[in-house]
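User: Run a structure prediction on this.
Assistant: Running it now.
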Amino acid sequence: MPTKKPVVKKEAPARRSPITRTEGERRLIEAAANLIQHKPFSEVSLREISLLADVNHRFVHTWFGGKNELLLAVVRQKVLDLVDAVPRAESGTPAINFFDPEVVSMVRLMIWLDLEGVNTGELFPNTPLVDALTARYVEVEKIDPAIARQAATQAISLGLAGGTFGSLIGLSDMSSVVPVMQLWRHIVGLLAEHPPK
């Protein structure tokens, strides 16, 4: 008669001590942001996010409402991270690297959420990224305040399009965008000297 191998119980992984909602939300946002860098958005599951975050998956529904709302929180956090980075960029250099994989992923995530029917238009009640870049243009780049906001809006639009769809027009990284941005900065300078009537 064959001998039976003793059943060895595996120890459950040690769980972290109870966490605050703020800590739990932060962990879930970071875990989701990490996973969407490596997998299609539709294939990232709440259980996978929760496991990586070491947070019970039920809290996603309690704290966010669902997967799409959690992914909106990822976008919100990434935009706020960009806002914080704008003032630290050196004068004369792009304040935002639109070819950064996290930025590209954030933009694609917003597009995906929009296609899923999620209202991304209400993500921010104001425009913090435009505001931060406008302030930088006025204070650091010395662009005329009368056109700084429009210039910031254009720069963000060009950057987002270039970073997300640049391969369609031969832009592959920030170095390929530099000549385009230099031309754009020259045009802004001309507009500052000769404002449209």
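The longest helix spans residues 145-165.
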